[in-house]
Amino acid sequence: ARNEILRSLHCTWHIVGEARRQCADLDWTVLLNEVMSVYIAAGFPNYAIDMLQQFAVFGAAPNDQTYLRLLEMVGRDMKDVGRFFALWETLPKSPQPSGDLYNLALEVALESRSSKRTCTVLEEMVEAAVFPSPQLTERLAQVGRH
């Protein structure tokens, strides 16, 4: 199964290389997001994160979808709070990230049980005029009572 995954990844990069040679007007952000999704699905989180460097190589820019996939992988799937917030710090704040990204950051901050981290994310949300989801608002109320 591992060999099959590696062959699929090799074929994926072959397709990307051919597309680069033959298609000048391709939306590279979409294509690179899909390659990154292949790494995530294959269980290669480090390669998925390394994909951020490939965007510059292809003259593309990561978008909200790029960061949402990576942050979900690191925060929800891997439960790696440190890596989540290291990646969160690289997230461009202009244009403003989506409410989904802010809510994900708040969710991970709450999971970390760090009041400082949670307050920092809440302050960022206030600055961005983004409000916590109803579920996270309920969790904040529960945490605040204890």
Summarize, please.
The protein has 146 residues and is mainly alpha-helical. The protein has helices at 2-22, 28-42, 45-57, 64-77, 81-90, 99-112, 115-127, 134-145. The chain starts with a helix and ends with a helix.
What does this structure look like?
77% of the residues lie in helices and 0% in strands. It has helices at 2-22, 28-42, 45-57, 64-77, 81-90, 99-112, 115-127, 134-145. The longest helix has 21 residues, at 2-22. α6 packs antiparallel against α7. It is elongated and about 60 Å long. It starts with a helix and ends with a helix. The model has no long low-confidence stretch (mean pLDDT 93).
CA distance, first residue to last residue? 47 Å
Overall radius of gyration: 18 Å
- The helix fraction, in percent, is over 70%
Mean pLDDT: 93
Strand content: under 5%
Coarse shape: elongated
Profile the largest sheet: none
The residue ranges in which pLDDT falls below 50 over 5 or more consecutive positions are none
Number of helices: 8
Order of helices and strands: HHHHHHHH
Number of strands: 0
Q: Quickly give the structural class.
A: mainly alpha
